[in-house]
Known about the structure:
This protein is mostly beta strands. The chain is built from 10 helices and 39 strands.
Amino acid sequence: MPIVKPPAKGSSDEDKNTPRMLKEPHVPDALPLLEDESAYLIPRLAQSRPLRVEVVELWGGSGALDPGEITTVEFYWDNEPDPVDSRTVEAPYGPEIIPFPGFIPALKLAVPGPHQVRYVVQLVPGNPTDPSYPINVNIDKEGPNQDQPGRKLKFPAEVERDGVTDDYLADNGDRVVATVERWPDMRLEDVVEAYWERLPFRDIDPVARVEIEQAHKDGAPVELVFEGDVIHRNGNGEFTAYYYLIDRAQNTGARSDRTLVQVDLTASPVMLPAVRVPQADDGLIDLEDARSPGGVYMFIDQILNLEDGDVITPSWNMLALPVIVYDASLTWPQRVAIDWSTLSAGGFEVTPGTVLARYTWRRGTSIARPSDPRFVPVNLTVAGPVNPGNPDPINLWLEQVTIKGMTGDNIITDADIGRPVRVVVPLYADPHPGQVLELMWAAHPTPVDTYTVQVGDREDDEVEFFIPWTLVEPVGNAVVQAYYWTFNGVNRQRAPDTAVNVNVIPITGLKALEFPDVSNSGGSGSGFINCSHLPWLGVRVRIPGDPTRLAMDDKIELSWIGHAGTNNNAPVIPETVEVFTHTLTAEEALNGYIFTVPFDPYVKLPGLIKPVEGSDSPANGCAVVRYRLIKAQGGVGNSARKLLPISLIRSNSPPCLGED
């Protein structure tokens, strides 16, 4: 047992203990241990640099050290007497130093075969622990089959005799399967990569691959599958097939012996190039692409050696699109539209992903051959609810904005002049921090205000915008639209429009209203209502036609205020305060419109006010009348006021309240 420094007074029993046998080190670059291995394999790439070794469990006894005392960790390679690396750490320290690293020099890794790595800890100089448990590592520098060429591939007897023919491919699933003869040092996860070359040219890419599994070690044949597409693509003639063995450490063995294979197929397209998706050239198909004229599409470029009747079947995300049957009139490239239902299938409105775009070629009853693949990223997600009307940008599930004018919602008048106009909207469901709402106003080309979703924001929280007055004032008198976009960094969608009536420039020059039933009504303030006018039938008020200022769908608001006296300074009779409204037709805007003001209470109450004692005036009360024009396309104006005297009092008779 190693000697350790006596514990300080008051130390725990654990601190008094000598460090126990230490846990084996860990080698991060080592591959996981397989069932047929007794040592951790070091990949070929990691053999060319110092090998990192880590102590992964803190040794005992460190709590007894005084501040400043030095602990040394020494790393040993095999049974060499001297450490290959030595590292120190100053007390106090604890688990925070774990993993504690050391390095095996790259020179040591030049010797192939199994090796052991262990470490020793000296809490204080001259007091080493027992060596840790070792870890066994294997430096493998030899390719499979002891770096010797493998036996040549064994093809089916029919292929060896007749070569690869249309009939053979049709009868065998459009593939040729060759068998690899087993090699003595076969290990799990060894890889066989096969090549198919037209003499005298060399192909640099493997065309078939198989990885050794336990079933192979238990006796299953090692088979390489040469797909019909590969064979067709390379055309007819004499080919050689061979393979390389690659082990788990990435050591590559010698090339196997070659097998000659004759290919005799009906002339067909040699190359089936991948489709082109121009809208993905920026790296992504998004909602903007889907909304573009013609939507999303892909191009199939010219395919050589086609024959009349050949069938080309495009597909998007494994969904077949309308087939193309070749004849001499076909033009290239062929444009294939991707409709919305196909584009969005697979949940890309909720989660972005990647689709496979390609086509297959088929002649007669032969097996369809696929083109080279094209992988296309697709992201159709939005901030806010998914639009059931996609790809239309307007989402009816988004709340509309409300413009909070000083005189009412969605109305801006001269009462708002000089101040930013406040706009509010409830926040949509499931908001995510960083998403942006962009307020659009009238014909302004860019957002006039934005709001960025914050941490803690929830559905129905009130989002607030402001429209600068400098952007409102130029609108003048008009009905304009306000809405907002949502933006998640990729896609935008927008809420429905809110119609906003902007009336900041008064309309002037409105014609004076008229009282057709009243004598001398043409003069300002002249004329009156008395019993001779049959007032119990109502009082008519005419709004003159004006093609310059009035138009169809404009609204007229007639204001009627009764007073208990003969002028507008007399007390107002509350029951007689009223606004009558009417929306003009085109004919009424041209020729005028007549309101009929009901007798009771609007005429009756002002007409029954007793005359001032000693006055000769026949009138007892009056009404002050004006009208307000509210343009359908924005704009407000007021006519001049007119005072209408009213008297229902008769000398020596009751007041006239109807036919009597």
